[in-house]
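Chapter summary example.
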Amino acid sequence: MPRGMEREHRAPSARTAKAGEDPKNRRKHKRDRILKNFLAIDTSSKYMTVLAAKEGQTFFSHTPDCAMRHSVRLMGAIDGVLKEAKLSLDECDFFSAVVGAGSFTGIRIGIATAKGFCLAEGKPSLPVTSFDVAAYNALDGERALALVDALHGNYYACGFDERKNKILPPAYLSEKEVLRLIGEGYVPYSMEELPLSAKAAVRKADPVEGLKRAIAALSKDAGNFGELSALYIRKSQAEENRKDV
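The structure predicted for these 245 residues follows.
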Protein backbone atom coordinates (compact mmCIF):
# COMPACT_ATOMS: atom_id res chain seq x y z
CA MET A 1 0.00 0.00 0.00
CA PRO A 2 1.40 3.43 -0.90
CA ARG A 3 2.72 5.31 2.10
CA GLY A 4 0.21 8.09 1.68
CA MET A 5 -2.64 5.62 2.11
CA GLU A 6 -1.42 4.01 5.32
CA ARG A 7 -3.72 4.37 8.32
CA GLU A 8 -2.85 4.19 11.93
CA HIS A 9 -4.88 1.53 13.74
CA ARG A 10 -5.86 2.68 17.20
CA ALA A 11 -7.74 0.91 19.92
CA PRO A 12 -11.21 2.38 20.26
CA SER A 13 -11.42 5.01 22.96
CA ALA A 14 -13.50 4.40 26.05
CA ARG A 15 -16.03 6.86 24.69
CA THR A 16 -16.19 5.07 21.32
CA ALA A 17 -16.53 1.66 22.95
CA LYS A 18 -19.31 2.94 25.16
CA ALA A 19 -21.12 4.41 22.18
CA GLY A 20 -20.95 1.03 20.47
CA GLU A 21 -22.52 -0.86 23.36
CA ASP A 22 -25.89 -2.51 23.19
CA PRO A 23 -28.43 0.19 24.20
CA LYS A 24 -29.90 -2.23 26.75
CA ASN A 25 -26.52 -2.51 28.45
CA ARG A 26 -26.14 1.27 28.46
CA ARG A 27 -29.51 1.61 30.16
CA LYS A 28 -28.49 -1.03 32.68
CA HIS A 29 -25.24 0.77 33.49
CA LYS A 30 -27.12 4.03 33.84
CA ARG A 31 -29.61 2.44 36.24
CA ASP A 32 -26.75 0.91 38.24
CA ARG A 33 -25.29 4.39 38.67
CA ILE A 34 -28.61 5.99 39.50
CA LEU A 35 -29.53 3.55 42.24
CA LYS A 36 -26.31 3.49 44.24
CA ASN A 37 -27.31 5.84 47.03
CA PHE A 38 -30.51 5.80 49.07
CA LEU A 39 -32.11 6.35 52.45
CA ALA A 40 -34.76 3.93 53.75
CA ILE A 41 -37.02 4.15 56.80
CA ASP A 42 -39.00 1.45 58.62
CA THR A 43 -41.28 2.66 61.43
CA SER A 44 -44.02 0.10 60.84
CA SER A 45 -43.61 -1.72 64.16
CA LYS A 46 -42.34 -1.13 67.70
CA TYR A 47 -38.81 -1.27 66.29
CA MET A 48 -37.27 1.40 64.08
CA THR A 49 -34.77 0.96 61.27
CA VAL A 50 -32.94 3.61 59.27
CA LEU A 51 -30.81 2.29 56.42
CA ALA A 52 -28.53 4.27 54.11
CA ALA A 53 -26.40 3.14 51.19
CA LYS A 54 -23.55 4.97 49.53
CA GLU A 55 -21.53 3.55 46.65
CA GLY A 56 -22.46 -0.01 47.56
CA GLN A 57 -21.79 0.27 51.29
CA THR A 58 -24.67 0.19 53.77
CA PHE A 59 -25.03 1.87 57.14
CA PHE A 60 -27.90 1.50 59.55
CA SER A 61 -29.44 2.32 62.90
CA HIS A 62 -31.81 -0.19 64.47
CA THR A 63 -33.74 0.26 67.70
CA PRO A 64 -35.47 -3.01 68.72
CA ASP A 65 -38.07 -1.22 70.81
CA CYS A 66 -38.45 2.54 70.67
CA ALA A 67 -41.64 2.46 72.79
CA MET A 68 -43.65 3.74 69.80
CA ARG A 69 -41.84 7.08 69.99
CA HIS A 70 -40.81 7.05 66.34
CA SER A 71 -41.67 10.71 65.84
CA VAL A 72 -39.25 11.69 68.61
CA ARG A 73 -36.35 9.43 67.65
CA LEU A 74 -36.52 9.20 63.86
CA MET A 75 -34.80 12.42 62.77
CA GLY A 76 -31.91 11.87 65.18
CA ALA A 77 -31.41 8.35 63.82
CA ILE A 78 -31.50 9.62 60.22
CA ASP A 79 -28.96 12.33 60.99
CA GLY A 80 -26.63 9.82 62.65
CA VAL A 81 -26.78 7.31 59.80
CA LEU A 82 -26.25 9.96 57.11
CA LYS A 83 -23.22 11.30 58.97
CA GLU A 84 -21.76 7.81 59.36
CA ALA A 85 -22.28 7.14 55.65
CA LYS A 86 -20.97 10.61 54.73
CA LEU A 87 -24.08 10.91 52.60
CA SER A 88 -26.14 14.06 52.08
CA LEU A 89 -29.82 14.08 51.18
CA ASP A 90 -29.12 15.57 47.76
CA GLU A 91 -26.74 12.67 47.01
CA CYS A 92 -29.54 10.14 47.54
CA ASP A 93 -30.89 8.74 44.28
CA PHE A 94 -34.18 7.71 45.90
CA PHE A 95 -35.92 7.45 49.24
CA SER A 96 -37.78 4.44 50.58
CA ALA A 97 -40.23 3.73 53.39
CA VAL A 98 -41.99 0.63 54.67
CA VAL A 99 -45.66 1.31 53.98
CA GLY A 100 -47.27 -1.46 56.05
CA ALA A 101 -48.83 -3.56 57.25
CA GLY A 102 -48.20 -2.61 60.86
CA SER A 103 -48.67 0.26 63.27
CA PHE A 104 -51.05 2.82 61.75
CA THR A 105 -49.27 5.76 63.40
CA GLY A 106 -45.77 4.44 62.78
CA ILE A 107 -46.46 3.87 59.09
CA ARG A 108 -47.69 7.45 58.66
CA ILE A 109 -44.56 8.85 60.32
CA GLY A 110 -42.18 6.94 58.04
CA ILE A 111 -44.12 7.75 54.88
CA ALA A 112 -44.45 11.45 55.71
CA THR A 113 -40.72 11.74 56.39
CA ALA A 114 -39.68 9.96 53.19
CA LYS A 115 -42.21 11.95 51.15
CA GLY A 116 -40.79 15.18 52.54
CA PHE A 117 -37.29 14.20 51.43
CA CYS A 118 -38.55 13.21 47.96
CA LEU A 119 -40.34 16.53 47.56
CA ALA A 120 -37.41 18.60 48.82
CA GLU A 121 -34.82 16.83 46.67
CA GLY A 122 -36.96 16.01 43.63
CA LYS A 123 -36.15 12.30 43.87
CA PRO A 124 -38.29 9.17 43.31
CA SER A 125 -39.68 6.96 46.06
CA LEU A 126 -39.63 3.20 46.49
CA PRO A 127 -42.43 1.72 48.62
CA VAL A 128 -41.56 -1.50 50.47
CA THR A 129 -44.01 -3.56 52.52
CA SER A 130 -43.32 -5.17 55.86
CA PHE A 131 -44.17 -8.43 54.08
CA ASP A 132 -41.28 -7.84 51.65
CA VAL A 133 -38.94 -7.25 54.58
CA ALA A 134 -39.95 -10.53 56.24
CA ALA A 135 -40.02 -12.59 53.02
CA TYR A 136 -36.54 -11.54 51.92
CA ASN A 137 -35.25 -13.41 54.97
CA ALA A 138 -36.51 -16.68 53.50
CA LEU A 139 -34.09 -19.31 52.31
CA ASP A 140 -33.81 -20.21 48.63
CA GLY A 141 -36.52 -22.64 47.60
CA GLU A 142 -38.92 -21.72 50.39
CA ARG A 143 -42.47 -20.48 50.01
CA ALA A 144 -42.61 -17.76 52.64
CA LEU A 145 -45.63 -16.64 54.61
CA ALA A 146 -44.84 -13.16 55.92
CA LEU A 147 -46.76 -12.39 59.11
CA VAL A 148 -47.50 -9.27 61.15
CA ASP A 149 -49.37 -9.45 64.45
CA ALA A 150 -52.82 -7.84 64.06
CA LEU A 151 -53.66 -8.59 67.73
CA HIS A 152 -56.60 -10.50 69.22
CA GLY A 153 -55.46 -13.76 67.62
CA ASN A 154 -55.43 -12.38 64.09
CA TYR A 155 -52.62 -11.73 61.62
CA TYR A 156 -51.78 -9.74 58.53
CA ALA A 157 -50.33 -12.24 56.07
CA CYS A 158 -48.89 -12.37 52.56
CA GLY A 159 -47.55 -15.39 50.68
CA PHE A 160 -44.47 -15.49 48.42
CA ASP A 161 -43.21 -18.15 46.05
CA GLU A 162 -39.63 -19.41 45.85
CA ARG A 163 -38.62 -16.37 43.76
CA LYS A 164 -40.17 -13.85 46.17
CA ASN A 165 -43.16 -13.17 43.90
CA LYS A 166 -46.38 -12.47 45.81
CA ILE A 167 -48.78 -15.36 45.24
CA LEU A 168 -51.13 -14.74 48.17
CA PRO A 169 -52.21 -11.09 48.39
CA PRO A 170 -52.07 -9.28 51.75
CA ALA A 171 -54.95 -10.42 53.94
CA TYR A 172 -56.34 -10.24 57.47
CA LEU A 173 -56.44 -13.84 58.71
CA SER A 174 -57.41 -15.73 61.82
CA GLU A 175 -54.92 -17.99 63.57
CA LYS A 176 -56.77 -21.00 62.17
CA GLU A 177 -56.36 -19.72 58.60
CA VAL A 178 -52.66 -19.04 59.14
CA LEU A 179 -52.08 -22.53 60.54
CA ARG A 180 -53.85 -24.00 57.52
CA LEU A 181 -51.45 -22.20 55.15
CA ILE A 182 -48.46 -23.36 57.17
CA GLY A 183 -49.83 -26.90 56.92
CA GLU A 184 -49.93 -26.48 53.13
CA GLY A 185 -46.18 -25.88 53.03
CA TYR A 186 -45.66 -22.17 53.64
CA VAL A 187 -42.77 -21.27 55.96
CA PRO A 188 -43.83 -18.49 58.37
CA TYR A 189 -41.55 -15.48 58.92
CA SER A 190 -42.05 -12.48 61.17
CA MET A 191 -39.95 -9.67 62.63
CA GLU A 192 -41.94 -9.99 65.86
CA GLU A 193 -42.47 -12.64 68.49
CA LEU A 194 -45.95 -13.96 67.76
CA PRO A 195 -48.47 -15.75 70.00
CA LEU A 196 -48.66 -18.21 67.11
CA SER A 197 -45.11 -19.36 67.89
CA ALA A 198 -46.46 -21.74 70.53
CA LYS A 199 -48.27 -23.69 67.79
CA ALA A 200 -45.96 -23.28 64.79
CA ALA A 201 -42.24 -22.77 64.20
CA VAL A 202 -42.30 -19.11 63.13
CA ARG A 203 -38.87 -18.05 61.93
CA LYS A 204 -37.51 -14.77 63.25
CA ALA A 205 -36.82 -12.36 60.41
CA ASP A 206 -33.99 -9.82 60.61
CA PRO A 207 -35.60 -6.41 59.86
CA VAL A 208 -32.33 -4.80 58.78
CA GLU A 209 -31.14 -7.59 56.49
CA GLY A 210 -34.63 -8.05 55.09
CA LEU A 211 -34.98 -4.35 54.28
CA LYS A 212 -31.55 -4.32 52.64
CA ARG A 213 -32.33 -7.36 50.46
CA ALA A 214 -35.83 -6.14 49.56
CA ILE A 215 -34.55 -2.77 48.37
CA ALA A 216 -31.71 -4.40 46.42
CA ALA A 217 -34.23 -6.59 44.58
CA LEU A 218 -37.11 -4.14 44.13
CA SER A 219 -34.98 -1.18 43.02
CA LYS A 220 -33.82 -3.12 39.94
CA ASP A 221 -37.26 -2.68 38.35
CA ALA A 222 -38.40 0.85 37.56
CA GLY A 223 -41.98 -0.38 37.79
CA ASN A 224 -41.61 -0.77 41.55
CA PHE A 225 -41.05 2.95 42.08
CA GLY A 226 -44.12 5.02 42.80
CA GLU A 227 -46.21 6.88 45.33
CA LEU A 228 -45.65 6.12 49.01
CA SER A 229 -49.14 5.13 50.16
CA ALA A 230 -49.98 3.33 53.38
CA LEU A 231 -50.98 -0.31 53.02
CA TYR A 232 -54.04 -0.63 55.24
CA ILE A 233 -55.57 -4.09 55.12
CA ARG A 234 -58.35 -3.21 57.54
CA LYS A 235 -59.63 -0.15 59.36
CA SER A 236 -57.78 1.15 62.41
CA GLN A 237 -59.13 0.35 65.88
CA ALA A 238 -60.23 3.99 66.26
CA GLU A 239 -62.25 3.75 63.04
CA GLU A 240 -63.77 0.46 64.16
CA ASN A 241 -64.73 2.01 67.50
CA ARG A 242 -66.40 4.98 65.78
CA LYS A 243 -68.41 2.59 63.64
CA ASP A 244 -69.70 0.80 66.73
CA VAL A 245 -70.91 4.00 68.39
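To summarize the output: The chain has one domain: 33-240.
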